[in-house]
Automatic annotation (TrEMBL):
Single GO MF descriptor: nucleotide binding
Pfam families: GFO_IDH_MocA, GFO_IDH_MocA_C3
Xref: InterPro entries: Gfo/Idh/MocA-like_OxRdtase_N, Gfo/Idh/MocA_domain, GFO_IDH_MocA-like_dom, Glc-Fru_OxRdtase_bac, NAD(P)-bd_dom_sf
Family: Belongs to the Gfo/Idh/MocA family.
Highest taxon of source: Bacteria
Family matches, as Gene3D superfamilies: Dihydrodipicolinate Reductase, domain 2, NAD(P)-binding Rossmann-like Domain
UniProt entry keywords in alphabetical sequence: Oxidoreductase
Protein name according to UniProt: Oxidoreductase
EC number of this enzyme: 1.-.-.-
Ranges that cross the membrane: none
PANTHER family: OXIDOREDUCTASES, TRANS-1,2-DIHYDROBENZENE-1,2-DIOL DEHYDROGENASE
Amino acid sequence: MSRSGDQRKVRYAVVGAGNLAQVAILPAFENATENSELVALITGDEDKREALGARHGIELIGDYEDYETILESGEVDAVYIALPNNLHREYTERAARSGVHVLCEKPMAIGVEDCEAMIKATEAAKVRLMIAYRLHFEEANLRAVAIAQSGEIGEVRVFSSVFTQQVRADDIRTHSELGGGVLYDMGPYCVNAARTLFRAEPEEVYAYALKGRDERSRDVDETTMAVMRFPGDRIAQFVVSQGLAGTSAYRIVGTKGDLRVEPAYGYTEALVHHLTVGDESTETSFERRDQFGPQIVYFSQCILEGKEPEPSGHEGLADVRVFEAILRSAETGRPVKLPPFERSQRPSMVQEIHKPAIEPPEPVKAPSPSM
């Protein structure tokens, strides 16, 4: 699989060179050298191609028009898609047609139909598809799952989360044609956390979606609030916003105690558990680490060993179907029932991979989304 003759390394092309790709994804390959190799970069900006190619020692560089040429060169085994949400389906299907495995950023796509098409295309081509749920490999998140399942805080019946930031004007998250809006950007963390912690799928949702008061949000949802009813009389609720001060937290409440994780979702700081059982409270901090290298290592393991990734396309679809129901509820002002959906795979501590933090480099023509 490798030009160097090492048959145990998967060769990657990163597609897209926005802020996340530059400060987190590209540097993460330094922490994945045991089975992964960064060999190609595809971006539409010539300045980015030149600067990032030199920074990371990438020789195979091209514009989006060169996508198939690079994929069919024999030099690439997998792509990491870090493009706007509306392009995830197209670039996944094109990779599958070229026989190349796909690691795609979340949300998987902007609709259930697109998700199903991505699954169908990769299955038909017999290539692996994984959605980049980085917290499925992160210790703080996985230990929260273990606590929820252990009975330490009793029967867990409530999940509550707030995840907000101030998004800069004209960021891709403010453009509906690019799949923008806060639900598809920040909602995946809350919905996925609730599904993971309850280890179940929601049966009904009720939601509100609010447009912004300034020009930043244009025609997308700036703030969305949703309540999800799960089997066993369990309730999850969350608020996400791209027009409020930055917060990142979730809390699970059981019959004997509760666990608050705050910060909860980020990759630039330590994540912290605040656990209360009865009258006793403890705080546990999980040091900042690279959350992107582990998912690259894991996906390469799946490719090399021929196994289905845990956060597969079906996991991405599971979230997107909930997003569609939330938006439908917000539009109609009525609760929306979800049909049954089975998931046999759930993340657990066995997936934890610890890689040291990497200091993010200065991005090239790719400012942070946050103000």
